Amino acid sequence: MFADFVAGDEPDSLHLWETACGCCRWIVDVIYDVCGKMYLHISWEKFARYHHLEAGFMLMFSYRGEGD
């Protein structure tokens, strides 16, 4: 899990880049529960609506690190 990978240095937000254009960036806030699980929060709903995401769709995330 990504949250385990960044444990101890949890980000307040993530930058989601679209591979189709390489320059479209969405800044999405994240929250953490008491178990350390990370959830996409503010702006995620706008991202999902913009891309017409529905239950069952699969997204792939990659981590560039070092604030990239």
TrEMBL record:
It is found in: Nucleus. One of its GO terms (molecular function) is DNA binding. Coiled coil: none annotated. It comes from Lolium multiflorum. Keywords: DNA-binding, Nucleus, Transcription, Transcription regulation. Its main location: nucleus. This is TF-B3 domain-containing protein. Residues 1-68 form the TF-B3 domain. PROSITE patterns: B3.
